[in-house]
Amino acid sequence: MMREQLNQWDFVLLAYAVGGIALAALILWAWRAMTQAEARRDATKRR
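^ thats the sequence. predicted structure below, dont judge the formating
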C-alpha cells in the first residue's frame, strides 16, 4: 500500500520491537554469565 505521508506509529512499533529484542538478548546474556560464574564457584569449592 502506497502512502504519501509517513505514519509515526510504524517507527514507534519498530522501536518497541528493537527494544524488546535487545532486552531479551541482555537477559539471556546475563543468565548465561550467571550460570557460568556459579559453575566456576562450585568448581572452586570442590578443590
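The first helix runs from residue 8 to 46.
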